[in-house]
Design brief:
Helix content: 25-40%
Radius of gyration: 16 Å
Structural class: alpha/beta
Number of helices: 10
Number of strands: 11
CATH topology: putative 2-phosphosulfolactate phosphatase
Number of domains: 1
Order of helices and strands: EEHEHEEHEHEHEHEHHHHEE
Shape: globular
Distance between the termini: 28 Å
CATH superfamily: ComB-like
Strand order of the largest sheet: 9-1-8-2-7-10-11
Length: 239
Amino acid sequence: MKIDVHVTPLGLLAGDLAGRGVVVVDVLRATTTVVTALANGAKAVIPAATSEEAVRLASNLEKDGVVLAGERRSVKIEGFALGNSPREMTAAAVAGKTIVLATTNGTPALVAAQGGDPVLVGAPANFKALAERARAILAQRGDLVIVCAGREKQFALEDAYTAGRLIKAIRKGIRKLALNDAARASVALIDEFAGWEEALEGSEAARQLAEADLGEDVAFAARVDRFGVVPVYADRRIT
């Protein structure tokens, strides 16, 4: 059995993930936002690599049921109904709607993960349910890939920490498990922090969000097991 971690989606080619179980993680904030939206009744989330693509995708859908959401430099994109804050994804805002989402790091990572089967969307917010599903895939396939969104094409502490915690949760009872170097480093990172809050709050992304008066999003993202949903990305839609 083997688990590979990619600390960013850079370098992933279309065929690299074909037929492999994949977990995509962007804790601050895209995957937390997706999990929250679907848990609160959104019909689907469509990730877009850019804001321009989001507008184009939304234009092809029925306008009454579509909500444009996204951020650039942490702030809501001008003209979009919602930003990328999980706290915005209330039932009143998203229930029954299709959310077209464009973010700096998370949605490009999701788009890059196309070809995985299945592609799961993970965060601390759905951690227990995610770990159970990921463990089942590993047991069935003998192979799992964790793709971290990273931050501005570089390593992101909060995503790698989450990857390490996920590996630790699903490896219990498995005698022989090969890890690539990034997976080993992610597991080693666990011991550097007392828990989720310390790891997330100590990240560069958290500091950037605090500067944008979005520090409450970090506290929201650090709360584990808020939801029991494990979103799946297939055919350009997360459901």
